[in-house]
Amino acid sequence: MSGDAARGNEHGPCPDCGLLYARGYAPDERYHRRVHDDAVNGHRTKLGDGFYAVTHETVMPLQKLAQAAASAARWETKYDFSSFTAIKKSVDEYDTIVMLCVKDRRVCGLLVSRQRECKYTANLNSFQLGDFDYWRPTECIEVKPHTRRAVDMIWVLKKHRRQGLAKGLIEALAKHCKLRVEDIAHMIPFREEAVHLWKALKLSTIYVV
After folding, report:
1. Which of 15, 52, 125, 182 is the most buried (most CB within 10 A)?
2. Residue of 88, 97, 83 whose CA lies nearest to 57
3. DSSP readout, 19-71?
4. pLDDT classification of 139: cutoffs 50, 70, 90
5. Are 68 and 43 in contact, with CB atoms under 8 Å apart?
């Protein structure tokens, strides 16, 4: 690494996109501008405004768009693993479905869902804050074990939050799967935003996995 690069790296990664780059070094600055633009404004796409379903049978360019959004969500949430990886599969045991939200030719929202074994419903008002800013229910009712469409992750680009996009993603998934919103489960633990989202959907109980 050159002296300039080393000095640039002393300042740490960009707080908005996470990229560690050599400040003042032209090639790195150009690369950072592209990465930063995607992180702040969403990955570019030729798709029109709306919601799009992506599976492991979908064409690879759309899968890679979903993967890019999942990577952005992972960086912000600090999860251990990405919620979606682009790979062609003829058989997907979890029947993975990703819903992408596109606005102004940018991907601004992501929902990842899979079929999961479900054993409980939970009272939304019983969720309490625990370790690591996660919320867990204190009132659950056991139901007969069954397979149910569940939400693994919902993520919306920071600049588009509080505009109803998360609610729109849930409703788009329900429509795509020919389900009612209340039929969809959600993996626990929750972030606080997930608790508020399900309450905004006028639910008092929810299936949890």
Report:
1. 52
2. 88
3. ----TT-HHHHHHHHHHHHHHHH--B-SPPSEEEEE-TTS-HHHHHHHHHHHH
4. very high
5. yes
> Which tens digits make up the pLDDT trace of 179-195?
999 999 999 998 889 99
State the Cα–Cα distance between residues 76 and 191, nearest whole angstrom: 13
Q: Which domains does the chain have, with CATH numbers?
A: 1-41 (no CATH), 49-208 (3.40.630.30)
pLDDT at 23: 86
Q: 72-85: per-residue pLDDT in tens?
A: 888 877 777 889 99
Cα-based angle 185, 62, 151 (whole degrees, multiple of 5)? 10
Q: Which two tokens stand for residue 43?
A: 């990955």
Q: At what angle do helices 165-177 and 192-200 cross, to 10 degrees?
A: 60
pTM, entire model:
0.86
Residue 31 pLDDT > 90? no
